[in-house]
Amino acid sequence: MLKGAGHLRHSGAMDKRPFGLTRRPVAVLGQGTWQLGDRAASVAALRRGMELGMTHIDTAEMYGDAELVIGDAIAGRREELFLVSKVLPSNASRKGTLAACVRSLKRLKTDRLDCYLLHWRGSYPLAETVAAFEELVEKGKILSWGVSNFDVSDLEELWKIRPQVACNQVLYHLGERAIEHAVIPWCEKHDVAVVAYSPFGSGSFPRHKTLDEVAKKHGATARQVALAFLTRRKSVFSIPKSSSPKHTEENAGGSVPLDGADLQALERAFPLGKPKSLPML
Questions:
Q1: For 241, which DSSP code?
Q2: Does the active-site annotation cover 172?
Q3: E strands within 119-256?
Q4: Across the 281 residues of the chain, what is the mean pLDDT of every consecutive 10-residue run?
Q5: DSSP code of residue 41
Q6: Catalytic entry in 63, 116, 124, 197
Q7: Rama region for 197: left / alpha / beta (φ>0; ψ in -120 to 50; rest)
Q8: Contact (Cβ atoms closer than 8 angstroms) between residue 8 and residue 219
Q9: How far is residue 188's CA from residue 233's CA, in Å, rounded to a whole number?
Q10: pTM value?
């Protein structure tokens, strides 16, 4: 890892792009909060990220105390954030979704979410969950809604119910590029933002000479190059998690200006593979 590379790669403002149908400018690189560690370190990491422009913060009711931690971290800075949480499928009835949202808002110490997601497809009819989302929008408790872990068939069904899906949050890293076959093209066609979670592979980040070579060329780190590759398409955002301010600084430097030669080399090193269904949680 190159010392200080996170600072070098983030000397300017954090890149933003329109977030799907909402058209709101949202930070390309945000902050994930699954399996946060020490509370004080997590709060410090989140605050450092906000300072660096990583104002897209993602969480879920499933993530234990993450919403409480975020509530502490964002105090006094709510207006600059794009704040996202998720309802569990087991709570995604119309009544259950409304109640889950109120609980999340209370834990986050805010009066609204910028986007609220169905965490994955469950047993409740999608129309029931969508009706709850629409009611929450009418009440001003959420500004938009979306889904997570949806494959194209699920997205097609959802689109017939209500063509207002803001985003689809899905697994996407160098070793798992399945969404490039059909999910990303579908989302781009329908102006749905794609949010990549676990961009470093959940503890299995690859060691590869091509990553090191491209990183050296740009004065970056391998992880920064990975983030740049994953967000090379204008529809894609990413939410890397950090356990410390130092790691956050590295993540914030992921806007590496990859050129055609870099992209070709990374494509060869991490081939797309054959189409397949999205991995199940």
A1: B
A2: no
A3: 145-148, 167-171, 193-197, 236-238
A4: 42 85 98 95 97 98 97 97 98 98 98 98 98 98 98 98 97 96 98 98 91 98 98 98 95 97 98 75 53
A5: H
A6: 63
A7: beta
A8: yes
A9: 10
A10: 0.94
